[in-house]
Fold each of these.
Amino acid sequence: MSALKRVQQWATFARIWHIYDATWQNPFDSAQLLKKYLMGLYKPIYHPMNDCGDHVILINSADIALPGNEWQKRVYFHHTGYPGGASWTLAWDLHTKDPTMIMRKAVYNGMDGNLQRRYTMQRLHIFPDANVPNELLGNVSNQIRQIRPVPKRLDHYSEEEVQTAPKVIDYPKDYVVR
């Protein structure tokens, strides 16, 4: 085998490092997107019994957005294995205890039916904020695009942008805000 073909084969089977920003993203939609990269579904060499997935660094998992009133309604089940060890935790409570757990559970459950999902999850590196060790950031070569755009917060607009924005209503001068 020539040196060029050998390098081409190494590049085909190499694990790529991706980074994904979970700010304002639905964890269940994000899980379906991340599953493709973790399992290697987008690669032409993919086979269900072939472990060709990539590494994914997920940042800002503390800023995820669940749809509707899922924070109050969604319940996560855990059992210790001992009698009476069953517990149900609401999503907001689980998120305050561990801001990475909802994303971890969403991605794990998104790979339903995959026999290798325990080993595949070892390539998912979740961080609650943007503080990622430099050893991991040095490996990143691709950024996964967010599913939905992140809106700009009101306090991030400059005073000039606020003044030039069209007004919806002009309040009367004697209007009192309570």
Note: The longest strand covers residues 17-21.
Amino acid sequence: MKLIKAIASAAILAGFSSYAAANSTLDAVKQKGFVQCGASTGIAGFSIADSKGNWTGIDVDACRAIAAAIFGDANKFKITPLTTQQRFTALQSGEIDVLTRNTTATVTRDTTLGLMSTGTNYYDSQGVMVKKSLGVNSAKELDGAAVCVQPGTTTELNLADWFRAQGIKFNPVVINNPEEAMRSFTSGRCDAFTTDKSGLASMRASQGSPDDFIILPEDFSKEPLGPMVRQGDDEWFALVRWTLNAMLEAEEYGINSQNVDEQLKSDNPNIQRVLGVSGEMGKGLKVDNKWAYNIIKQVGNYGESFDRNLGMQTPLKLERGLNAQWRDGGLMYGWPVR
């Protein structure tokens, strides 16, 4: 009986492997002519649509970069806006090709959902925002407070863990949509609103009087945010992962959207490999050897994407911090394109 079960299990696994191999996401994307990305329903700086339906943000740039790598055209993408509760199901079902939504990598998500994180495009932490009129300067002063939080997130779990560790109580007000949660917070239904600090900065910047709100200093968690793909499709995983690394490597070597054509003449072997002047770095990824050149030319390096979506010249006014290059004291470290 054990032998029969073992044979049956092996057959199932073999069938799944054959299915995965025969249903390459990259092949499917090439066939339909665009990449379908899942993004948030609207978080300024990460993924948000204007009145004409044009999407922008650092997570949208991740999607555009994948399109540029595959097609040589960063415009060959479509966005599916997803709530926190919809995002994993949409990826699991194949409704989207990749989840480029501010999503935290955790061991549970990498081992129980059939999904896998491909890297970090924003290092964040969870925080809490209050109205300045509340008169508190620390989350430790929120004993008994009503806190707006989204369900089905690490945020909800971190919030409970932090308050328990402090020996204080809170009343969760669970609201699925971040915009609705913010409205509930500003209308007085909640004393505080918690999510990733970047999200709090985005929400605060969208208010008519941003200075009426403060983000308290405590960090409730570590939140490495980045794209996710389905397990069992290694070539798609590799393409998404190396798209981010190409943007990081470009910034480290001083290659940007403005000078990339001039950099084609560089005698630096690292730059030559990144830009496809030498070697065949695209061959293993099943894309053109100019894949990284196309990303940089059309989307920019990581620093350019950060600055135009989140940086000090935007309403969010976020400093690079942990998202600076490793040589500048941050955590961003591009893997070698070689």
Note: The chain has 13 helices and 14 strands.
Amino acid sequence: MARARAADRLNAVLMFSVGFKLSAMAGALDTVKAGDYIVIQRQDYFKLHKVSENGTVNLGKDILDIGSVIGKPVWTTYRLEQKKGGRRNYQLKECSITDLKDDSITMSNNSTSTSGTDNRNIVDDGSSQKLSMEEIVSLREEGRSSKEIVGTLIENSTTFHSKTEYSQQKYLKKKEKKYFEYITIRKPTLRLIAEIMFRLDQGKIFGLRIDTLSQIPTAVNLHAHGKYIVFESGCQGLTAAALLNGLSNEGRLVYVHLGNYPSKQALLALNMTPEQENSLICVNIYNLLRKLKSECNGITGEEIKLEGIQETSTDPKDIELKQEISPKEKELQPALEEESVKPETDNKKGADENDQPLTSSDQENSCQNKRKHSESGNDDGSAKKKSRWEVETDRAVSTLHAKADGLVIACREHPSSVLKALLPLIAPSRNFVVYGQVREPLLELLQELIKRPDVTNVRLTDTWLRHYQVESNRTHPLVNMTGSGGYLLTGVKVQPKDF
């Protein structure tokens, strides 16, 4: 039985290796370039990392030279080889499937054909292992493989053969996790990015779990050629990445945010192509609504109001910047007004003093001077070069002229004012989704939307998810689980009937 389970585990490892080899062979090979994000997999542990030349990455206490993966295809497996003189410093060496098969720790269980019936007579007093800690560390410093180290530990253990079969497997799994010396470079996907961010810190992504994230594109009725609006604050761009991942080159995503810069950690981790970057439009919510309101209120068929949204930034640096700049602007405002009036008064004075017609030669000289002045780019009438945020605002306004196909809101603030401001920007018979980590603000918004004549099919849902550990003769849920993955408020905008 022990050999059969060890063989099954080895087959799973081999199928995993064959799978990423075949995926790398299919189509064009995706190679790792400097500046790209990669996912480093070590058994069931995943880490997101940005590759740089001569860069390193920490995996626990181990330091790896990750620059050697540049130019190599993804789904490549590497073996950790210890550097000379470096205790926990490793360099990566590309290996094959046969190397992974020969050094599999699970095959060490084949050398032990005996097992006990119970563990009642085993006392965990720390004296069962004959090797000292210094001797175990020296085995690793000598460059021994993980299989050899685990085999040596089993040979010098006085209680391993008397343990039950389940205890032996648990012991091998623990040692395999500690001494496993292979990593796999994977391409970042939305699922991996969401799981890594959720595992590191749930608070940074507003408790957005992968099962809830997967329901958002479905609830908003995402299709590849559509135009969508995402308002997000506090999720590191995860919802925007979920929608952008499902859009084609013809689709457009207007990423509305607070503050000066959007949170794009998840978007950058996707290694966006130039086509995806062109489909993404990042714009500040205040600039967008002001631009729409200043151009014409007839764009959306109704007036866009800013009463429900206070123009305050959540970034402390932005708050300090506003506190420093606003007094200076108040002091310089009279001086700026005088400067704008002074040239006109000076020109009038000059015209009164020199009240004589210009000759033809003077007119030609003045025209030449104006032409040179305009060609040099210093003409007062020439258009100033727009900044990036102005260009993005113009792109967002032109995109929303025909109205969007859906709206997604995921913010730490109360979503009521945000939804009221952005709901007129989507077309009738289009869906909207509001995500919240707690249900009380969504319940208040639900009561408001029920009374509106332009909204129907409003629903508030949550998802119950439980992970189970399924193995032979035992199945039980995991001990550490999240109580909730957040709540989704969904609805459909309709054209209200004129009474």
Note: The longest strand covers residues 426-436.
Amino acid sequence: MESAQQTVARVSQELKCSPTSRRVAEHLDKQDELRHLRQEFLIPKISELSTSDLSLVDGAEDCVYLAGNSLGLQPKNTKKYIDEELEKWAKMGVHGHLKGSRPWVWAEENLEEQMAKIVGAKPEEVALMNGLTVNLHLLMLSFYKPTPKRYKILLEEKAFPSDHYAIESQIRLRELDVADSMLIIKPRQGEDTIRTEDIVSLIEREGDAIALVMLSGVQYYTGQLFDMEAITKAGHAKYVNSGAGGLAGAYIHEKHAHSIKPALTGWWGHNLKTRFLMNNEMDLQPGVNGFRLSNQPILLVCPLQASLEIFNQTSMKDLRKKSLLLTGYLEYLIRHYYTKDPSDPDKPSVRIITPSDPEQRGCQLSLCFSCPIRAVFEELEKRGVACDMREPDVLRVAPVPLYNSFADVHRFIAALGSALSASGAKQ
């Protein structure tokens, strides 16, 4: 398979232009078989961003939105679906539970087959419920069963705070010592990401004491994609573009359908066929569906439906194929312009801490700068670029294959050069 760098070189030769020319980006966009998906999303104009400086950029242009790893763009159908439910509530009242295109009693269940396709699971192994951290707690209450000898939880350094805090509180709930019970794996000295062989080695070495392995699918800070199959066959977690406080998913393999029971139960874990008998005799659904607590807020189901419908216009295979090229193109341009130059130590440079191997990263590059990052970040915002800064010194840039274009990447690189100049960094 042709690498992103090889693709850029080939296209530039065909077009007889520089590999860094905007013409390369335009050509790649014309050849992109997923380019139509961009039209399914609302992309803010630069003038609509409160951080932009209209004396520097054209406010009528679309912003360069590269923050999908933090907050995905809004699908166009989101407002339509929410308005439909508000209208149904206004006109039908309580009858909305059983009427309409998405009856409230089982609205989220209509989406689980679509979600299952994204995560590569069976529909009965996936449930859409609660927020992410609530789901983590519900699952850990059932799957984290510490004993005097096997009580540790393995997680990565700089795990996302919600994951870290959930683990801490679960350990305290069992009245165990947090420092002794949290087994945190770090990168090797001088490295930015964690080697798979180090994770596997630690599991083999500490296995008798480990009760639970909990790693994110994509490490949020570095963008590293963990080899979950090599690390554990017991399960995996995935992060997908979502909105703030969006409805989260949970996954439990079918082999646990009857052996693992929820520690906390609610009405929505009851079999739908007998749920409304109201006899207070639990007829628990097997597997992950038994972990439901209550019916999901319909106004959260609506944006999830709008998003999943777009995902299901394509496949994860095709999205991944575009993502590899899109992120590789970004990497190519950053290395071309901002690789450290020993002959000019004052020239600003960028170090990519995300793995260079495309198979070991998601659709994100985490960038470290040789100059103060906050000033650069603020100058990017003024130029209509939406990305994400994380303390102490990382800029997370995520070109999402659903809606980002190669032209977006090229515009980002141009804006970055201007931002570095404006922030006082020597060019």
Note: Residues 233-237 have pLDDT under 50 and may be disordered.
